[in-house]
Amino acid sequence: MITVGLSAEVAATRARAWSALADPHELAAWRPGLRAAPGTPTWPREGATLFSLARVHGLPLVVRETAVEAVTAERLHVRLRVGLFHCDAIFSLAVLAGERTRVGLQLQVANELPVVGGTLDRFSVRRIATELAAVRLAALREACEAGAGAAAPGARPVAVPAR
After folding, report:
1. Residue 153 falls within a domain, yes or no?
2. Minimal CA–CA distance to 104: which of 1, 25, 8, 2?
3. For residue 12, what pLDDT band results from cuts at 50, 70 and 90?
4. Does residue 34 sit within a domain?
5. Is the dihedral angle over the CA atoms 32, 51, 137, 23 positive or is it negative?
6. Residue-range definition of the domain harbouring residue 17
7. What DSSP character marks residue 97?
8. pTM, whole model, 2 decimals?
9. How many domains does the chain have?
10. Which of 3, 48, 87, 162 has the highest CB neighbour count under 10 A?
């Protein structure tokens, strides 16, 4: 198992950072590609799933995130699936001095990932996980520091209740 941990200091309160992680409409503002299902979103209730679309090297992939654990304004653990890439992503929020928050993101991924015709070795997996964590934290920081914004045009979150 490979574990990658990164953190970012955000110029926003812990409540603001949690809102950016937990409110599906805010997620759509910093995570383009989210789409909405009719009804009341249940994200991030444990077992709820969000779907989005991503492009990796020009290929469209479905991103599926299932909430494993949600502790309001403290911790969000999701199981993330992007094509053959599966990992656990654990966000943690800690209050810093003033109205600042440390947002940690830990990704846990298997040592090897299957790909067509072979596998990605642990060095490639670590690089991919590190890039994913860095991109997510940077986007989250930018969204938190900009305040609650409107979702990107056409972006609507999808929340699917647990079965």
Report:
1. no
2. 8
3. very high
4. yes
5. positive
6. 2-146
7. T
8. 0.81
9. 1
10. 87
